[in-house]
Design brief:
CATH class of the largest domain: Alpha Beta
Number of domains: 3
Strand content: 5-15%
Family: Belongs to the histidine acid phosphatase family. MINPP1 subfamily.
Radius of gyration: 33 Å
Keywords: Hydrolase, Membrane, Signal
Distance between the termini: 92 Å
Number of helices: 24
Helix content: 25-40%
Subcellular location: Membrane
CATH architecture of the largest domain: 3-Layer(aba) Sandwich
Number of strands: 22
Protein name: Multiple inositol polyphosphate phosphatase 1
GO molecular function: acid phosphatase activity; bisphosphoglycerate 3-phosphatase activity; inositol phosphate phosphatase activity
């Protein structure tokens, strides 16, 4: 009995001295993506209905109307392949360690049952229960009495751990709202949305199986930092065969697993906290180049998730307007890869320099710390608020990351207008300059007007471009030779781009229109010439109704290569793109011309609407069978990593027979706002030969002496030094008022406003 008691006492002593606990972790908890949510974020409660309302600056209240949630699965056991590595590591140490008796736990360590491999463990269930209760409390009124299969949607990947996570979250969420843990809703499996890297040959070839892509990880494994970790562990164990980087990482994972499942830190004793930080950095480098900002392809993979997110919110807005039931809670459960790629698409945790093998010391305070950003059960919540009214502009959006409010990139507060356009173009406005739409916060819009047609006297076509006031200083309208399109230049310094961005808004009229038949120029050819010119100075984006139907025809050079035929030095091969899956199977002459433009200018690629866009020539609002894809965004290929999302909006026949298309670009805009609370400049005084004596007399007057006495009696500390200087300055100004003559400021004349010339056809220079 004595040895047994001694063993128990020893284990308790080890756990106590390590200050470890399965709910709080160990030390700085740098376990990469094997870190529990509880080890990183406190187990706090949410006040009931804390997230239900928000007050705007004008006092108007906005109420939560939908909850979109994306989460990583809860803490889980390692996969079967990991346990194979654990067994191999144990065998290697037992057979080659001279100090094995110092670490008896290695020989006695028991593997976990195969039935548990990759499954959510108890700690993971506690995480999910905590989070379900957290959001159930915060949004109680929205869901109380409103939980049913019609209002709650669960989505997971095919993996059991995500299905279990969705069920556990829903149990706690429903128990908080209804008083009963429900299990009546089962997750819909959607790998395309939540495991978008699966079945993607381009991702496998370009990233996972590309040794060049992961060279920074291999270089860090061979660095002095990582090699010293291997040396240290080898010396502790007295190994006569050196451990490998994979052995060190397996030991690191056993440490995290035993702590989370068995509340045991024996394996952790083989690595110091500083060494675990180095191992964590190696893990972060691997994920940075395979899942984060290390490659432009990574962010493109998130398109299905963005599409589902915005479709869910638009469906809620439209059905609320009609008084119909809609999904109140859209809950999605994926993986660490899902979260990391989505973080990068949002522009979150983007360090000023990439993680590299040679900058470990400089990156210790980096933003991308996966143990801090993507632990088990890491989550992003989007809460949609209605502020009165039924239109999209009456809604706000709030984002929370790991239970904390985070400003959505591009917004200036925690609450972002759902319909927030910085730059937008209305096409086929059919208006005069006198009756074009004017909008607050969008001063000085540009309207391109066509001449009236004869004999009806009506106007057709027309473009109106609106720029938000706050970014207007960074946008310049360029000369154009026709009112069918216009170019904008977005200044790289203002927007934080590497190069200037040239945007062309275009309306290309139908080929069979009388207006087009009278033209003596080809609009696409003119734009093509401009692309050649502007691409020398920056990136290109084209947006608008091109009336071009391209079906699913190839829009890039297939199997492009510079290996066999001699080409000019700066030739750039086309990327291998996934073929578009347009629902419009027709192609017209304009479409073939557009595809030819792709090939000729093959450094530009298309970002097209994969949903149907309503083609006004062929389609009535009541008949969608002839819908066509005619509206496009085209962008320089190098610009695509800046796209946060591209979206085709729902069809609103009351407004247009086209669907709105929109995109969001990441930028680092430098907006300088005026400080309206600046102090006024002090008065100016006339100083002449008599001023010296007059000012001295004023200083010696009883009134000023009284001010000086009060100043001397007042106590100023280091924090109020500015107040002391301001009070002293007031004394001098008061003495000047008593003794000197002021210079009277003359009011400035108002600048005369120039009359704007009405230009209906021709060139406009702004």
């Amino acid at each position: 009995m004595v040895p047994y008691l001694l063993t128990v006492i020893l284990v308790i002593y080890l756990v106590h001295t390590c200050h470890a606990d399965m709910l709080t972790g160990l030390g700085n908890n740098l376990f990469g993506h094997k870190c529990s949510y509880f080890w990183r974020f406190p187990n706090t409660t949410m006040q009931t209905n804390y997230l239900m309302q928000v007050a705007q600056q004008d006092g108007k209240l906005c109420n939560a109307v939908q909850f979109n949630y994306l989460s990583r699965h809860g803490a889980r056991m390692p996969a079967t392949d990991d346990f194979v590595n654990f067994d191999q590591l144990k065998t290697k140490i037992v057979e080659h360690s001279a100090n094995i008796l110092r670490y008896p736990f290695i020989k006695n360590w028991q593997d976990y049952s195969p039935k548990t491999h990759a499954h959510v463990e108890d700690l993971g269930r506690w995480e999910l229960h905590h989070l379900g209760n957290f959001y159930g409390s915060g949004l109680y009124d929205m869901f109380h009495g409103n939980i049913s299969p019609a209002t709650i949607k669960l989505t997971s990947s095919e993996k059991r751990r995500t299905k279990t996570s969705s069920a556990e979250f829903y149990k706690a969420f429903s128990r908080r709202v209804t008083g009963k843990a429900l299990s009546d809703i089962h997750p819909v499996v959607n790998n395309t949305m939540l495991r978008y890297w699966d079945n993607c040959p381009n991702y496998d070839l370009t990233i996972l199986k590309n040794k060049t892509q992961m060279q920074q990880q291999y270089a860090f494994q061979n660095s002095s930092y990582f090699q010293n970790v291997i040396k240290s562990v080898n010396e502790k164990l007295g190994m006569n065969v050196s451990l490998t980087p994979d052995d060190i990482k397996a030991m690191f994972m056993i440490c995290a697993t035993d702590l989370a499942v068995r509340n045991n830190t024996d394996w952790c004793s083989l690595q110091t906290e500083a060494e675990r930080e180095i191992i964590n950095y190696e893990s972060d480098i691997e994920d940075y180049y395979s899942l984060f900002y290390g490659h432009t392809l990574i962010q493109k993979l998130t398109c299905p998730l963005w599409q589902d997110l915005f479709a869910s919110m638009e469906d809620a807005i439209n059905k609320r307007k009609l008084g119909e039931t809609y999904v109140l809670g859209n809950l999605r459960f994926g993986h660490s890869d899902t979260m990391d790629t989505f973080y990068s698409a949002l522009g979150l945790y983007h360090d000023s320099q990439p993680l590299r093998a040679d900058n470990y010391a400089a990156m210790k305070n980096r933003m991308f710390y996966e143990s801090k950003t993507t632990p088990f059960s890491a989550n992003i919540a989007f809460i949609l608020y209605n502020c009165g009214g039924n239109e999209a502009e009456n809604y706000l959006l709030k984002m929370m990351v790991n239970n904390q409010p985070v400003t959505i990139p591009g917004c200036d507060s925690d609450f972002c207008p759902y319909l927030k356009q910085d730059i937008f173009c209305l096409q086929e406005t059919h208006c005069d300059l006198d009756n074009c739409l004017e909008l607050p916060n969008f001063q000085r819009p540009v309207h391109l007007i066509r001449p009236r047609t004869k004999p009806s006297g009506k106007r057709h076509g027309g473009l109106s471009v609106y720029i938000l006031n706050t970014i207007r200083p960074g946008v310049k309208f360029l000369e154009h030779a026709t009112n069918d399109f216009i170019w904008l230049k977005l200044d790289r310094t203002f927007f934080g781009f590497q190069e200037d961005l040239y945007i062309c808004f275009v309306y290309n009229p139908p080929e069979n229109s009388s207006y087009y038949r009278k033209l003596n120029y080809n609009i696409l050819e003119m734009i093509e010439n401009d692309i050649v010119k502007y691409s020398q100075s920056g990136k290109i984006m084209i947006a608008g109704d091109l009336n071009a139907r391209t079906a699913c025809e190839i829009d890039h050079i297939q199997m492009d290569s510079d290996k066999h035929i001699p080409l000019f030095d700066n030739y750039k091969c086309d990327s291998s793109l996934i073929q578009r899956k347009s629902k419009d199977s027709s192609i017209n002459t304009r479409g073939r011309q557009l595809l030819s433009l792709y090939v000729y200018l093959h450094h530009c690629v298309s970002l097209m609407a994969e949903q149907w866009v309503i083609y006004w020539v062929h389609t009535l609002a009541s008949n969608l069978s002839n819908s066509s894809v005619v509206d496009y965004f085209l962008a320089s290929e190098e610009l695509l990593p800046n796209f946060t999302y591209f979206h085709t909006h729902n069809f609103l026949p009351d407004f247009s027979d086209h669907c709105q298309i929109s995109c969001m670009l990441k930028c680092n805009t430098k907006i300088y706002e005026r400080n309206l609370n600046l102090a006024l400049m002090p008065d100016k005084y006339i100083w002449d030969d008599n001023s010296v004596s007059a000012f001295q007399d004023a200083i010696n007057s009883n009134e000023i002496k009284n001010f000086i006495r009060q100043y001397k009696d007042k106590i100023y500390d280091q924090d109020s030094i500015n107040n002391a200087a301001e009070d002293l300055n007031k004394i001098f100004l008061k003495a000047a008022d008593l003794s000197l003559k002021k210079i009277i400021r003359k009011p400035k004349k108002k600048a005369r406003r120039r009359k704007l010339k009405r230009i209906e056809n021709g060139k406009i220079k702004i």
